[in-house]
Amino acid sequence: MLSFDDAVKTHRTEVAPLLKKLGFGATFFISHRWMIESQDPNTTPADYMSWQEIAELHQMGFEIGNHSWTHPNFAVPKDAARLPAELGLVELELRKVGVPRPISFAYCASKWGPEAIGQLEELGYKLARRGDQPETRDGTAKDGPTFDPQKDHQLLIPSTGVPVPGWTFERFRRVVGQTRPGQIVVFQYHGVPDPHGFASTTPEHFEEAMAYLKEQNFRVVAMRDVLEFLPKTPPADALLELRESGLPDSKLELPTEMVATRAELGYWLKNMIHYHHYTWEEIDQVAGLGLDAVKTRAHEMGLDASPPPEPTGNGTPVWLLAYPGGRHPRIGFRDHALCPMRGTKASVFLPWDPASYVVIDLPEAIFSNLGLTFLAHTDVPTIWDAQNVWLDNLDWSRGSEGGLTASRTLPNEIAFGASIQPAIGKVEMELWLRNDTAEKLSGMRTQICVMLKGAPEFDAQTNDNKILRSPACAVKSAKGDRWIVAAWDRCGRAWGNPLVPCMHADPVLADCLPGQTVRVRGRLWFYEGRDINGELERAQKSFSALPSDV
């Protein structure tokens, strides 16, 4: 099996033409990491393939595998938690150039852990190459083992040989000589040559090696070709529980949301058990303590049973809580909302049924003349994804009166924030943005999503139950006598996505000069009755649609 990492330009100019001529298969593992200007002094974007050149490899018949967007260490739990986003960004760019979704993955720098393996299984990846460690790391072997499908898990395929400078033809022949019936020799190449000298193979050595494989009549395959050799039940590989990180335990950071949950475990357990009615499995996904530990802590705090929901009543403010995360807030269209941040999402509980809630994503997205400036999940690349910059979650701050506030400063010194304040039958909302850059910001469209999955009377996957009339949007209950309504000033578009399902009344922020702050206000409220048109007319008097000339 031949595999090539990192999307090096020579894969297209040197490697692929030779392999095509020889009739060999191969898998090319693609990462965005070095396709842009970076701080790596050894590389330039010209050293790496474009997406169109990657598509040409596919058109030549080679397999395209996924090697992640930013090439992090997926043995670190914090990095493994974002693996769906890392893979999804690569998949999106491949789809744009006609390359099908990969089924094969290669761990970056040959580092992996149980969390990453679990993510790959959940995402439907069939095969993954782990590298030649731990065998070569601990000194028990000079080369990695062959791949034995009866012994090695298909998401932990070892690399038998990793050619680097200093590899001789004799060593290549020795590694190839390990081929046996049921034993597959796996080569893990980088560039031929590679901008990183430590991983480079010269064209002369590569041509000599490939000629030898041809002369000896070896079957040379891509990773996808080993599917035919896999057993129906994956073997119980002992390495499934190993964490091959190359780091001390002190460097194995946990996901940001998990750290924040553990820091205020009492609040989040009550939030999840009493109000959102999470299962124990969902709670453990958020806290990461293990099912037994979570149950024990909940019992110690007297939180291990969900009490009957308490109606808020007509004279009291609605319940407003930070959304705990873990449980995806969408029913459908979830592949367009990978790794959703919980720190922009808040649950507003219905006054008629306090076991039901809607989730407000404030903001879901901010666009500007710079491009997609912020997105509260991963879908299309933001200006930060394009620079290989990952934005961590920042949780809401909770006020003494039950309100929520949040703020964030982006790497380019654009700051923004939001507030949600509960009141009787409604929540009042604000979104603000401050421009601390040196240039004017314009074209600042936002998306503020009201997701309906948690409100069963309102969660039909259709827009037929909605009125989308700027500056407001409204959704009616299945019986048709109750409504959830939202409105924003400077609303540029009212719309809904039936698959999520959700509704929007998205404001457009005013142009913002350096040093200025712009704000818009919004409201979400509950209406019971048959005169919804009258209610929306009143909303139009309180909130303004964006003028047509803006």
Describe this entry's structure for a reader.
With 550 residues, the protein is of the alpha+beta class. It is built from twelve helices and 22 strands. It has helices spanning 9-22, 51-59, 77-80, 83-96, 114-123, 169-176, 203-215, 256-263, 265-275, 280-287, 291-300, 532-542, and strands at residues 2-5, 27-30, 63-66, 104-106, 127-131, 157-158, 187-189, 320-322, 345-349, 357-368, 371-375, 397-398, 404-409, 414-423, 426-435, 444-451, 466-469, 472-476, 482-488, 491-497, 502-509, 517-528. The strands form four sheets. It has an eight-stranded antiparallel β-sheet with strand order 12-13-14-15-22-19-18-17, with helices on one face. Strands 8, 9, 10, 11, 16, 20 and 21 form a seven-stranded antiparallel β-sheet that branches. Strands 3-2-1-7 form a four-stranded parallel β-sheet. Helix 2 (51-59) links the parallel strand 2 and strand 3 (63-66). The mean pLDDT is 95.
Strand-helix topology:
Blueprint (H helix, E strand, L loop, with lengths): L1 E4 L3 H14 L4 E4 L20 H9 L3 E4 L10 H4 L2 H14 L7 E3 L7 H10 L3 E5 L25 E2 L10 H8 L10 E3 L13 H13 L40 H8 L1 H11 L4 H8 L3 H10 L19 E3 L22 E5 L7 E12 L2 E5 L21 E2 L5 E6 L4 E10 L2 E10 L8 E8 L14 E4 L2 E5 L5 E7 L2 E7 L4 E8 L7 E12 L3 H11 L8
Parallel strand pairs: 1-2, 1-7, 2-3, 4-5, 5-6
Antiparallel strand pairs: 8-9, 9-10, 10-11, 10-16, 12-13, 13-14, 14-15, 15-22, 16-21, 17-18, 18-19, 19-22, 20-21
Helix pairs in contact: 1-7, 6-7
Query: What does the main sheet amount to?
Result: 8 strands, antiparallel
Provide the low-confidence segments as ranges: none
Beta-strand content bin? 15-25%
- The backbone outline, from C-alpha atoms, is elongated
Residue share in helices? 10-25%
CATH topology name of the largest domain, in short, is TIM Barrel
Structural class: alpha+beta
**In order across it, which strands form the biggest sheet?**
12-13-14-15-22-19-18-17
Instruction: Please tell me the total number of domains.
Output: 3
